[in-house]
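Margin note from the TA: students keep mixing up input and output lines. Inputs are the sequences; the output is the structure of the whole complex. Example:
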Amino acid sequence: MPSTTAKSGFIASLEGAGDWLKTRINNIDIFDEHYHREAVTNPFYALGPIFYLVWVIVMLTGCVLIVWYVPSKAEAFNSIFDIQWKIPFGGLMRGMHKYGADAMIIAATMRMYRMFINADYKPGKEFNIAIGLVTLLLCLYSGLTGYLLIWNQRAFWATKVFATFPTYMDQFPIMGDFYQPLIKSFHMGWNTAEVLLGGGAAITQETITRFYSIHLAFSLIPLIFVELYFYKNAKARMPISWTKRWIVIMMVAVIAVILPAAQGRRSNPDVTPLPILSDWYFLGLYQMYKYLEPVVATEITILIPLSVVLMPFIDVAVTGAEKNILKRPLTLMVTIMGLVTWVLFSLLIIANIANIHNDPPYWRIFFYGTIDIGILWQVALIWMTKDMRERAKAAGAAMVMAVIAAVQCFLGWLFYYMAQTEIFMDPMWHQFCYASVRPMLGGNAEQIESAIRAIVQPMNTTIPYNEDFIVLCKSTFTKIPTAKEGIAKLTELCNQGTPVDWMFSWWPTFSPAPAQFTQPPAHYKGAIDFLVSNRWAYDYVNFTERLKMGSDGHGLIGAAGGGFYPKDVPPLDQAWIWVSPVLLVICLGTWYWAKQSSAAQQAPAPPQPAAVT
Amino acid sequence: MEGTNRRTLLKTVAAIPLAATFGLLISPMLRYMRPTLKPLDVIGPSDQPIAEEPVPTFKDSDFPEDWTCLPFMFRQSYIEYNPEGKETRLIPGFIVKIPGGDVVAYSRICPHLGCIFNFVKDPSECAKGYNFDPRSLTPGGPGRPVFACPCHLSVYDIQNGGKVVSGPAPRPPRSFSLKKEGDTYKVLTLEAGGIA
């Protein structure tokens, strides 16, 4: 119900937001129940009902399986064997359960692609993408919790990887463990992993019990809500004929008979088979984990679903109500990019032909290249518009694309240094902070850096986080003769005052956690003490050292796998790095041009209120 | 209209302490999800696991030549605040004699994502299966054995403190502290962290 009463200020904007939300909630569509007519002629609009049908199959066969399955470490594998071979129709039931689950994931994925290609989220239905994604994620997690229950090698090792990768959240900026002296860390990553594994740092009986209950809950709880939704809205559940239903049921059943669900070998926690694969829908992610730093890979794993949720909003901001996919090239290219990456990554890991050292530049240029083509294509469409009113509307679109190009610029700038020095994320951020404070330190800066060089060889040393740098050096680098002088020099420098001490002196030091709460924490003496103790100075020395090129054209030896720093930025990466500012300029130019055309247009005079007589 | 707003506001205000009370009641229940929590410490870190007797023991004569690599199992007990009080896990490890006479021991649990890595003696096998040729570690030389993980192809240089020489691993494998008594080596404790 739109608010028509004229109000102003905060209340009006709140009501506007409320209306916006209400429209989208009213437009929610879980299983394509608003597309009954389309479903008759276009099978892609029957994907929702098919998904529901297969879900019912999976739940019914699951009910048979739980009668015979024993969720214990010792018996799980045997009971699966009994179900498969000794119980009448057990193999069929298990096969239909497994292939039904696969069918659900296929249907949910295809439905997502259909929604993007046909712009089913327009107008005012953007939430449907998020709901489709939640459906898909629930399927994926049910699959993951389901195949641990078989307790075979693949299940065990896939679960281990799945449970370990959240621990890298502890290395994220702000929410991670890096700021332990400032706030007590939530240990978010480690807690997530322990909760997943059943409260502990190992895959044990508790893990099976927990995954078993989650596996059931992920179907039962949504089932209640879905049935309530259908009941409340009086919607038909499966608007497809019995012939079509039987086709789907038979497809699942026939595959289950022809290709009995595999059981693999009993899990062995002490042997990781080579090569080890996860279930097919996680293969793409698995390949990505080979290519990337684990923290970055974890971040991307979280960013993928978030970007999928954001995509419809970006698309609406760029193309408005347009539904033709050829007039929405940005969405088209992103869709293609996602599909191609997923399929190719999966194929690469199955064939085991990827080279983790040579491939990444190709992936990066493909990733940025497809998005850039989408932006350029979209800009070209704006330039070709004859209609002045349409062109004026395009200013917002150009601005949104300029933001995307700016993000690419920033990533390119960051990557340029990361590729040369192999320093990632947080150390990079530390050295950047140090570099920006450095001018305030006066002549002390050079002395700090030379002292650090005397203590550690930046190339070959791993310095742990969340430990006081000087304390660490005192306990670790005592064998090096120059270290003692360096440490004494550093300790002395820490007492020096600087004009920016006020920014750093209130930070608590790395005192052990329990002491923080029983007694007031110790504080840093000043800027230098903080920068040195938090290893920001060390990260800066390491960074500048690695960027330095000797007179012989070589830098320092010590790159991973042997070799020299600074490393060359691969030409393919240079391409996308240098394209991004050009793209930014083009987008901003288009924005300016569209703005000009809207200014040139004569605004119609606002209607005058009728005079009250 | 205005009156309703005021009522809604008052209701909301009244709900906050109620919600806080229920939240406090629920918070001990978090320990159902994570029995490693210490009582009254919901967001703290877990207790570190401790070694269980008997610890693996080796003799000098077990290592007849350089690069002798012996697998072993290390018993570690994880403290849990559940009826059993603990959960014991076997941590697989490798103890290796490296040229120069030193003996080092590492947990075989890959610090990347927890798979069990292998001892790859033959450099050509590593070059074939793990995207890294250990011959590049000794320019012009025959290369040397490395640890290599089959899951995501991380390779560790054993002689160089387990340094990551290839692949996505963020750090060297966790090492065991060894104690030498006469001609025996005792594997005492494992460096903290990691999922077993």
